[in-house]
């Protein structure tokens, strides 16, 4: 039997939902690792909708669960139905939807609030000592929910212009957590909390390097599961 992994999405598209390449890479690596995957998303309205061609706000409303179903090929459930007892691990890909729909980091930074079902999901897996995988901006969820944990969003300085969002590391530190600097093809394992993180698109890097980094995160999650 493969490990049972829940994948939590935040919509569809980097600017207002889940980052599609990160979600796909996670699913590929989970498939390669023999995992049994079920996909979830909160049944809520998106904070905003972005025209990805123009990079501008669009005057329309969309639902996070409905949009996430595009990535899940329709096979998806409401996050409110996720039971940690039925899974060995949970993974959150990144994308601005994490910072807009799963929490309010995009607006409030370290003072953000976390969606109730996202919070309860994280708490349930943590309490059960089951691993939590997070990539790109999603490690801020752990930083907000689990003070004192260790995560990475890449580097804490904009090294060679590759880490334009390096200030996120400082905000994580201000929350009382420890930020661990890692390269894009690496992940960090907080063994005490069973939290595995990798920076993915927080780094400007070739897609294959981001894919490989997500692979290390998935492998470590499956090892801990």
The H-and-E topology, N to C, reads as: EHEEEHEEHHHEHEHEEEH
Q: Please give the share of residues in helix.
A: 25-40%
Q: Under CATH, the topology is which?
A: Rossmann fold
N-to-C span: 12 Å
What integer value in Å does the Rg equal? 16 Å
Second rung of CATH, namely the architecture: 3-Layer(aba) Sandwich
Uncertain ranges: none
Number of DSSP-assigned strands: 11
**Fourth CATH level, the homologous superfamily:** Class I glutamine amidotransferase (GATase) domain
- List the quaternary state of the chains: single chain
Shape: globular
How much of the sequence lies in strands comes to: 15-25%
CATH hierarchy, class = Alpha Beta
Counting structural domains, the number is 1
Helix/strand-derived category reads alpha/beta
Total of helices: 8
Mean pLDDT figure: 98
How is this structure best described in words?
InterPro entries: Class_I_gatase-like (IPR029062). The mean pLDDT is about 100. The chain is α/β, with parallel strands linked by helices and about 220 residues long. The protein is globular and about 45 Å long. The chain contains eight helices and eleven strands. The strands form three sheets. Strands 5-2-1-6-7-11-10 form a seven-stranded mixed β-sheet, with helices on both faces. Strands 3-4 form a two-stranded antiparallel ribbon. A two-stranded parallel sheet has the order 8-9. Helix content is about 35%, strand content about 15%. It has one domain (about 5-225): 3-Layer(aba) Sandwich (Rossmann fold), CATH 3.40.50.880.
């Amino acid at each position: 039997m493969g490990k049972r992994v829940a994948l939590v999405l935040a919509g569809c598209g980097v600017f207002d939902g889940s980052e599609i390449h990160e979600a796909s890479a996670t699913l590929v690596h989970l498939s390669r690792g023999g995992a049994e995957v079920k996909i979830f998303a909160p049944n809520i309205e998106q904070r905003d909708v972005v025209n990805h061609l123009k990079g501008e706000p669009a005057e329309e409303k969309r639902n996070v669960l409905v949009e996430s179903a595009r990535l899940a090929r329709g096979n998806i459930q409401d996050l409110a139905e996720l039971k940690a007892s039925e899974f060995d691990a949970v993974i959150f890909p990144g994308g601005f939807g994490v910072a807009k729909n799963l929490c309010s980091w995009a607006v409030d930074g370290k003072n953000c609030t976390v969606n109730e079902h996202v919070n309860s999901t994280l708490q349930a897996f943590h309490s059960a000592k089951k691993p939590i995988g997070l990539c790109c901006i999603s490690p801020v969820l752990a930083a907000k929910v689990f003070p004192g944990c260790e995560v990475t969003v890449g580097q804490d300085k904009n090294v060679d212009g590759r880490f334009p969002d390096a200030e996120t590391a400082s905000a994580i530190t201000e929350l009382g957590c420890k930020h661990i600097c890692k390269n894009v093809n690496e992940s960090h394992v907080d063994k005490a909390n069973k939290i595995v993180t990798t920076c993915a698109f927080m780094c400007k890097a070739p897609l294959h390097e981001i894919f490989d980094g997500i692979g290390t995160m998935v492998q470590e999650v499956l090892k801990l599961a």
